[in-house]
Amino acid sequence: MNLVFLAALLGLLVGVVGAGMGGVVASLIPTATRRQQSILLGASGGIMLGVVAWDLIPEAWNLSPIYTVAGLVAGTLFILLLRRYESDPGAVTANVRFTKTGHLLGIGIALHNFPEGLAVGTVFANDPASSLWWELSLLMGIHNIPEGLVVATTLRLGKTDWRSIALTLFLAELPMAIGAMLGGVLGSITTPWVATSLGFAGGAMLILVAVELIPLASKQAGWRWATVGLSVGLGLARLLCLLLS
Question: Which residues does 207 contact at the CB level (< 8 Å), separation at least 6?
Fold first, then answer.
């Protein structure tokens, strides 16, 4: 049980550190153009894709291909069903103040932090000494930096004070701790559950990039800059995977 709580604590720490660094950068660069926001969101999506393609899915597949596929399908369906009960953020953000936009971005980040935490907690509980856990945590933390930066700079444009910005970033990372705790439980049970959990996280993260992050990045400044950010994120993720492997 201590391992499960430690997984949750580490999951929260990974998220808070990454988003917090983004907030610190935002304090040094108080404004961000829509083009810069598009690139940052695209890069965040690229890093997430890299995590799934080069870490989560290969690890899960080596454990059990069948359970990996089952997890992928379950994670994809979970996000698609969840999105049916939320309003279209793109339709809202085009007509509201920056403060509302920043809060909506924070909600979107909180949504995909759960599968991220699930992956981190599962890998940690399955083998705390695994090099994959360190690699995954570093990539997740780096992935949270541009997201935290976008949320913080957007809220600053809405004249939000730093205390409220910090609270928003912290609350957005809480689902990562919850996901890590659940991952800690599943990762300490059996190999099929580990493969299913990693597959679920991978499927959820893939669909979130496809239907949330990249479309949102394109709405900031067009597909061109969203694609630039996506390419940068993928390149960074691949470089880090090679360096840490």
Answer: 75, 76, 79, 80
